[in-house]
Every structure is written in structure tokens, then in C-alpha cells.
Write a structure and sequence with these properties.
With 109 residues, this protein is mostly helical. The protein has six helices and two strands. It has helices at 3-7, 11-19, 34-43, 49-56, 67-81, 85-103, and strands at residues 25-26, 29-33. Strands 1-2 form a two-stranded antiparallel sheet. Helix 2 (11-19) packs across helix 3, helix 3 (34-43) crosses helix 5 (67-81) and helix 5 packs across helix 6 (85-103).
Length: 109
């Protein structure tokens, strides 16, 4: 999927942000990059990890979330949002519980 398909009219802004610094694909999902996730966390009112996973990307909708990916995404969002370690851990636990309770998905390593 191209950035234009993913982001429509803001694709140019996402692309510019991605090109403004060193970027690499995510270790646990090569379809997204670290700076792409940073852009979303900075600009799309991400309050909880599930906001990112279910409403700002297609990761959750397409069933692509794994526990290692969740932890990787949490680390990126935590850095951007300046979350303390306790909040980051709580967000991971909250998302694992949400996926289990609401979607019947057990996130395993």
C-alpha cells in the first residue's frame, strides 16, 4: 500500500517527515517505518496505543498485530509522547486486554 492510499491528502506531509531524518522499517512490520509511526503519534492525537493500532493504521483491522510489534510501537509512541515507563507498560497491558476482551485476539510473542 502506498502512502497516498494510506494518508490521502496528508501523504506529502508524512513523506516529508519521513525524509527529514534517518528512517528504517519497523522490525516487526516492514510495511511501516519508524518515522511514519512517529508522524502519526505527533500529529494524529494518539492518546492510547489502540488509537494508533485501530484508528490511525490498518494494523489491527488487518489482524497484523503481534506482541513484539505492539511493544515496538509502544516504544516509538512513548518516546514521541514522552510517556514514563509505567504509562508505556500500562498501555501495552491495556491494549493486550482490549484485544482479548473485545476482539477475542490473544497477543502472543
Amino acid at each position: 500500500m502506498t502512502l497516498q492510499e494510506r494518508y490521502g491528502t496528508i501523504a506529502d506531509h508524512v513523506t516529508a517527515y519521513m525524509k527529514a531524518g534517518p528512517d528504517t522499517p519497523l522490525a516487526h512490520h516492514v510495511g511501516y517505518s519508524r518515522r511514519e509511526i512517529e508522524f502519526i503519534a505527533l500529529n494524529e492525537r494518539v492518546v492510547h496505543l489502540d488509537d494508533l493500532i485501530m484508528r490511525r493504521t490498518l494494523i489491527g483491522i488487518l489482524g497484523e498485530l503481534t506482541l513484539p510489534l505492539l511493544k515496538e510501537l509502544a516504544a516509538i509512541v512513548a518516546k514521541v509522547q514522552q510517556w514514563p515507563k509505567e504509562k508505556t507498560a500500562a498501555e501495552i497491558a491495556r491494549t493486550v486486554q482490549l484485544f482479548k476482551k473485545v476482539h477475542g485476539v490473544i497477543l502472543a510473542a
